[in-house]
Amino acid sequence: QLQLVESGGGLVQPGGSLRLSCTASGFISDAYVIGWFRQAPGKEREGVSYISSSGGSTNYPDSVKGRFTISRDNAKNMVYLQMNSLKPEDTAVYYCAASSAPYLEYGLGYWEYEYWGQGTQVTVSA
Fold this sequence. Notes:
- The protein has strands at about 5, 10, 20-25, 35-40, 45-50, 60, 70-75, 80-85, 90-100, 115, 120-125.
- It has about 130 residues and is mainly beta.
- Strands 2, 4, 5, 6, 9, 10 and 11 form a 7-stranded mixed beta sheet that branches.
- The radius of gyration is 13 Å and the shape is globular.
- The termini are far apart.
């Protein structure tokens, strides 16, 4: 059974940093593309990063580019999202997701992913 579990969320002040982790189990993680998404109350789910199965390709929307960094350690079945210079508008539930497709043309669309974690809350507030 495929399972993704997020961790590392919490409360942080504006300008601070958090590192989210996504632990994968039940499948060979290096065969899957991984994305991070977020959803704030009343808003659509937004893709904030994508990493290819090898880790050689990444993508970010302009809203987080230069502040967020996605990485993966396939030996540990882990994917990370380092978030720096956090803003109140980054407050949301953050999800990791996996796709078995060998390649995603976009990578930031929720429709491209088959498997989802339960999410972890990130709150940026003074």
